């Protein structure tokens, strides 16, 4: 076959057509029936006519997600509010319905993330789908189809293109001359990729590097990605190492005809990366095709499913989706319902500390619990209780002995806290305690976590996260007005742990707590200190604290649910 002649012919056709459509006429393709994990066989279907494909990816980390929930609303003035949108990543692949937006200081989830841990607070491993295939075979399109059709609460797409190694000036010059081999395993930072995928699978947040193919360099900024229920990982050499394959629960190989892959690559590199035809052909003959024969095609043997014709093979894709749904159903459970009925009885844990009950504290509780208390009095006495609570909590910090000299030149042996304090409020009721944190703790830095209840399932969902920088070694005062079942508290603590904050450095402060929530938190996180002003009797079937205080946020802000 005369590749340059074929390339010129197809390139001229591509440049005159829509950039989102590739038509291959008069070619009949068939495949045998697909089976799920067990044997690497193909999915059946035959078609004649035109095939629609999206262009392949070129760089950066593609963070994609699916599904529905509420758009973000933020309590703090100046915060960003965003909703789902279709964006274009640096790789040129379309990110449909991206579920979170990152800024330098905060992450906003446009769809709530459900619990990524079990009722004991331990991380649930995500279901990882690995997708491999030749350059421009349609891996990204298949990945996005899987994400779209799954319809599960939280899915992310991780591209291997993000993990190209940073090039030296000499290598960058070779890359501009199409003399650098981007299709060899040595071109990728596989060690970093394995570490990143492992952390994602464990539900932790990671920073994804951004690679720019136009300059052939890593950009200084990174994308923050959080763990998910399902992780779709795609790349030409996704199966190149055993430790990488071992992280995958399902391995899919997209097998597309070489002529189609070449045509797509021509369109992508010429239209999107600004390269000339001769350079693309040179790189294809020298690096791309040999790499396909030597590294990529043999990796098909590791696949659980082979998908001929990529995104046009709906039979194979539907089988993959059905299998993933079945696996997710086996792993799932009703989180809040379980923790509401778990561990109700028994002695209170040693990590619980209740503000000493004097007549003053009892009197303030009487006022704020009274349904007839005017709003201004409710706010005033709630704030008084909050200050007492914060002052009491500070006594559990690790103070060190120190000696100072008094104005009379005498020595005084005292104590000093030399650590760093950070306050994190659970929006929205927890925001009411920020004033007390500022009044009592000089120069304290504050963060926010927004957790809301899904209206259909009743499960907590993470919508917003903004944490200060330099968290290492800091002591965290996590605040919320109440602890009922502990569902929101567990999610907030899990977020902090995923940011590598030691469990023993976290104190959870609340005005009122229910026994079931206290037991759940103490069992899941035995080193977290729980500090409150009052322990109530129980949580009812609607997950309300009895006798309780009503909806604290509504009473404080003067709103109604």
Automatic annotation (TrEMBL):
<dbReference type="InterPro" id="IPR027417">
    <property type="entry name" value="P-loop_NTPase"/>
</dbReference>
<dbReference type="Pfam" id="PF00485">
    <property type="entry name" value="PRK"/>
</dbReference>
<dbReference type="GO" id="GO:0044206">
    <property type="term" value="P:UMP salvage"/>
</dbReference>
<dbReference type="GO" id="GO:0044211">
    <property type="term" value="P:CTP salvage"/>
</dbReference>
<dbReference type="GO" id="GO:0043771">
    <property type="term" value="F:cytidine kinase activity"/>
</dbReference>
<dbReference type="InterPro" id="IPR000764">
    <property type="entry name" value="Uridine_kinase-like"/>
</dbReference>
<keyword id="KW-0808">Transferase</keyword>
<protein>
    <recommendedName>
        <fullName>Uridine kinase</fullName>
        <ecNumber>2.7.1.48</ecNumber>
    </recommendedName>
</protein>
<feature type="compositionally biased region" description="Low complexity">
    <location>
        <begin position="84"/>
        <end position="101"/>
    </location>
</feature>
<comment type="function">
    <text>May contribute to UTP accumulation needed for blast transformation and proliferation.</text>
</comment>
<keyword id="KW-0539">Nucleus</keyword>
<comment type="subunit">
    <text>Interacts with RNF19B.</text>
</comment>
<dbReference type="InterPro" id="IPR006083">
    <property type="entry name" value="PRK/URK"/>
</dbReference>
<dbReference type="GO" id="GO:0005634">
    <property type="term" value="C:nucleus"/>
</dbReference>
<dbReference type="GO" id="GO:0005524">
    <property type="term" value="F:ATP binding"/>
</dbReference>
<keyword id="KW-0547">Nucleotide-binding</keyword>
<dbReference type="Pfam" id="PF14681">
    <property type="entry name" value="UPRTase"/>
</dbReference>
<comment type="pathway">
    <text>Pyrimidine metabolism; UMP biosynthesis via salvage pathway; UMP from uridine: step 1/1.</text>
</comment>
<keyword id="KW-0067">ATP-binding</keyword>
<dbReference type="GO" id="GO:0005737">
    <property type="term" value="C:cytoplasm"/>
</dbReference>
<keyword id="KW-0832">Ubl conjugation</keyword>
<feature type="region of interest" description="Disordered">
    <location>
        <begin position="81"/>
        <end position="107"/>
    </location>
</feature>
<comment type="similarity">
    <text>Belongs to the uridine kinase family.</text>
</comment>
<feature type="domain" description="Phosphoribosyltransferase">
    <location>
        <begin position="359"/>
        <end position="559"/>
    </location>
</feature>
<dbReference type="InterPro" id="IPR029057">
    <property type="entry name" value="PRTase-like"/>
</dbReference>
<comment type="pathway">
    <text>Pyrimidine metabolism; CTP biosynthesis via salvage pathway; CTP from cytidine: step 1/3.</text>
</comment>
<keyword id="KW-0597">Phosphoprotein</keyword>
<dbReference type="GO" id="GO:0004849">
    <property type="term" value="F:uridine kinase activity"/>
</dbReference>
<feature type="domain" description="Phosphoribulokinase/uridine kinase">
    <location>
        <begin position="128"/>
        <end position="316"/>
    </location>
</feature>
<dbReference type="InterPro" id="IPR000836">
    <property type="entry name" value="PRTase_dom"/>
</dbReference>
<keyword id="KW-0963">Cytoplasm</keyword>
<keyword id="KW-0418">Kinase</keyword>
């Amino acid at each position: 076959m005369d590749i340059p002649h074929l390339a010129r012919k197809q390139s001229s056709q591509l440049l005159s057509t829509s950039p989102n459509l590739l038509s291959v006429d008069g070619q009949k393709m068939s495949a045998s029936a697909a089976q799920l994990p067990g044997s690497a066989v193909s999915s059946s279907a035959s078609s004649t006519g035109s095939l629609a494909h999206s262009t392949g990816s070129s760089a950066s980390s593609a963070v994609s997600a699916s599904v529905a929930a509420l758009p973000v609303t933020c309590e703090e003035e100046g915060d960003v509010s965003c909703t789902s949108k279709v964006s274009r990543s640096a790789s040129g692949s379309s990110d449909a319905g991206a579920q979170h937006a990152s800024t330098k200081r905060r992450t906003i989830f446009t769809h709530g993330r459900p619990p990524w841990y079990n009722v004991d607070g331990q991380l649930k491993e995500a279901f990882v789908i690995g997708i491999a295939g030749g350059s421009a075979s349609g891996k990204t399109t298949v990945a996005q189809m899987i994400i779209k059709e799954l319809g599960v609460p939280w899915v992310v797409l991780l591209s291997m293109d993000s993990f190209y190694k940073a090039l030296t000036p000499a290598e960058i010059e070779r890359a501009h001359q199409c003399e650098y081999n981007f299709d060899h395993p040595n071109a990728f930072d596989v060690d970093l990729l394995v570490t990143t995928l492992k952390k994602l699978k464990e539900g932790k947040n990671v920073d994804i590097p951004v690679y720019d193919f136009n300059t052939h360099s890593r950009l200084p900024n990174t994308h923050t990605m959080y763990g998910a229920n399902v992780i779709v990982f795609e790349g030409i050499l996704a199966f190149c190492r055993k430790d990488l394959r071992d992280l995958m629960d399902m391995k899919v190989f997209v097998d597309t005809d070489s002529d189609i892959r070449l045509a797509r690559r021509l369109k992508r590199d010429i239209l999107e990366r600004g390269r000339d035809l001769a350079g693309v052909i040179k790189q294809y003959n020298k690096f791309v095709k040999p790499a396909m024969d030597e590294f990529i095609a043999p990796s098909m043997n590791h696949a659980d499913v082979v998908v001929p014709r990529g995104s046009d093979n709906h039979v194979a894709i539907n089988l993959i989706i059905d299998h993933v749904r079945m696996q997710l159903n086996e792993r799932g459970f009703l989180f809040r319902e379980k923790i509401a009925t778990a561990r109700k009885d028994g002695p209170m844990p040693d990590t619980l500390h209740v503000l000493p009950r004097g007549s003053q504290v009892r009197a303030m509780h009487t006022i704020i619990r009274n349904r007839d208390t005017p709003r201004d009095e409710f706010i005033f006495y709630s704030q008084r209780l909050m200050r007492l609570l914060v002052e009491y909590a500070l006594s559990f910090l690790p103070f060190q002995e120190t000696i100072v000299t008094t104005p009379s030149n005498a020595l005084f042996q005292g104590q000093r806290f030399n650590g760093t304090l950070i306050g994190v409020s659970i929006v929205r009721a927890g925001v009411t305690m920020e004033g007390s944190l500022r009044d009592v703790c000089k120069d304290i830095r504050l963060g926010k976590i927004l957790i809301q209840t899904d209206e259909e399932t009743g499960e907590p969902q993470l919508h917003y996260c903004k944490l200060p920088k330099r968290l290492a070694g800091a002591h965290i005062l996590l605040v919320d007005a109440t602890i009922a079942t502990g569902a929101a508290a567990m999610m907030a603590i899990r977020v902090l742990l995923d940011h590598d904050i030691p469990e023993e450095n976290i104190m959870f402060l609340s005005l009122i707590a229910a026994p079931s929530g206290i037991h759940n938190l103490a069992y899941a996180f035995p080193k977290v200190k729980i500090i409150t002003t009052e322990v109530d009797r129980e949580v009812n079937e609607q997950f309300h604290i009895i006798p309780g205080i009503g909806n604290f946020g509504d009473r404080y802000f003067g709103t109604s649910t």
